Known about the structure:
This protein has 308 residues and is α/β, with parallel strands linked by helices. It is built from 9 helices and 15 strands.
Amino acid sequence: MYITMYFCLSSALIESQTCLVGNQKECAENETVAVATQYSVDVANQWARSIENMHWLHDGHHSTVMSQLEAVHRRSNVPPSQMKVVDIACGEGIYARKLSDRFGYERIVAVDKSRAQIDTAMNRTASSRYPDIDYHQMDVPIDTLSAADIESLGGPFDIALANWLFSYADSKPDLLRMMEWTNRLMKPGGTLIAWTVAVEDLRDADEGVVKNSKFRIEQRFEGENGKKEEGRVWQGENEKEYVCSIYSFNTYETLFEIAGFRDVHFLEHHEYVAGNELSNCTREERAMFDELITWKGCILKVFTATKL
Ligand SMILES: C[S@@+](CC[C@H](N)C(=O)[O-])C[C@H]1O[C@@H](n2cnc3c(N)ncnc32)[C@H](O)[C@@H]1O
């Protein structure tokens, strides 16, 4: 396992309970600490609570993806009812359900490494209401993807979502393998949309409080003396903490090209969407999302890419 992201209640706990085994990291799983990629039931619940506590932020995440999908459908002659979608690192299935409600795709296949997340997703996704959604436990890119595997999953897919998958890549080779894995699942010309942790120029990224304490977001680079460099970055989001990997736009663009994608595009500020008709955010909360996401120190980013 080469994943680096942990959800913990304190960074001290991360340090005291994380042990390195070669290139692997292991974290004792207990009430407060768990390897996020194994998402224990407790960690899955923390994530669900965070979606509620920081709803203005998560709502912006969801609305932005929905808006990018709408743009895809405006450009395409194929109706969503004839499209297949894969949601990689689907978590508790929030995107899968939103996509089904909104677009009525032919099929949505949602995969995640964590058994607890898949179980939670299945519990929250009534099959009578969502007969179009299938969940599978899969570890990217460890689990192989032969042509037969792709077919049995229901692929290849017109659209891939991979929200917060690539930020688990522990190194550039790992990042490339995740991209290649995703590429294999997709149809030529298919669209990939993902939230990740990235920045155009690392010097712009904040060290410590992000822009203003009202956002309740902090980030710390884990390089020597907090040096801003690609690699591990600690993030605190209200009560929840994680360690993930940050890479520059340039790294993403280069590796995506190698992995067989074209038109890699990090969204411009005006393309982020704070709220839509399904949102329960106030005007002030939408303004807060806008302010955060357009801040040059913000490292939460969305990109789109097209499979060659
Ligand atoms: C922060 S959650 C995001 C869930 C969902 N995409 C969302 O945005 O609501 C990250 C998810 O990525 C999953 N994950 C992490 N590494 C993975 C991997 N290598 N393969 C598949 N899933 C992975 C975790 O289990 C977790 O459910």
